[in-house]
Specification:
It is a single chain. This protein has 177 residues and is an all-alpha fold. It has one domain. Helices cover 81% and strands 0% of the residues. The chain is globular. The protein starts with a helix and ends in a 7-residue tail after the last helix. Keywords: Membrane, Transmembrane, Transmembrane helix. The chain crosses the membrane at residues 7-24, 30-50, 62-80, 86-110, 122-143, 149-168.
């Protein structure tokens, strides 16, 4: 059973992030960092709200642990590297958020059942989240050098894609709320 209100909240957060990145003229590391941190804060808050309102204690524990770990890691990375440029922190934070959302989506797919419509939707979302995380991991390891403008653009495109996927799930009339 899906929580339509949490999905609508996640849709709005992702859509606002995508629109903001699209229509801001400057695509430097600071814009990307602000976008990814606001996206991560909103999405993780919506995930926690969704988990707390569900009756599943296993889902609550998993989502709360992953969200808490992500907040701790992002804060520790930002605090431990005060001299790092905004683009490097943006790349690392985006990679971590991608991996966290992949873990949450795969766990939700497991809980709903791999073959159920909600399970399949979560698998598609996990692939999208993992693709973003892998792209930014390749950049942070030096395999594929992304510039600031393409990296922020990729994050904006990712935000638009997940906004559409979450919006379709939220407003699907065949699913119970």
């Amino acid at each position: 059973m899906i929580n339509r209100k949490a999905l609508i909240l996640k849709t709005v957060i992702a859509a606002v992030t995508a629109i903001a990145i699209t229509f801001i003229q400057v695509h430097n590391g600071m814009v990307g960092l602000v976008a990814v941190l606001s996206f991560a804060t909103g999405i993780l808050a919506a995930e926690v709200w969704d988990a707390l309102t569900s009756g599943d204690s296993m889902l609550k524990g998993t989502v709360l642990r992953v969200a808490g770990g992500m907040i701790f890691l992002i804060g520790a990375l930002s605090y431990a590297s005060p001299g790092a440029d905004a683009f490097s922190v943006f790349v690392l934070d985006t990679m971590l958020i991608g991996y966290a959302l992949t873990a949450i989506s795969l766990f939700r797919a497991y809980k709903f059942g791999w073959g159920s419509p909600d399970g399949r939707d979560n698998i598609v979302l996990a692939v999208v989240h993992f693709s973003l995380a892998a792209l930014f991991a390749l950049d942070s390891f030096g395999v594929n050098e992304l510039g600031e403008v393409p990296a922020v653009g990729f994050f904006g495109a990712y935000s638009a894609i997940v906004a559409v996927l979450w919006g379709l799930r939220a407003f699907d009339p065949k699913r119970s709320s």
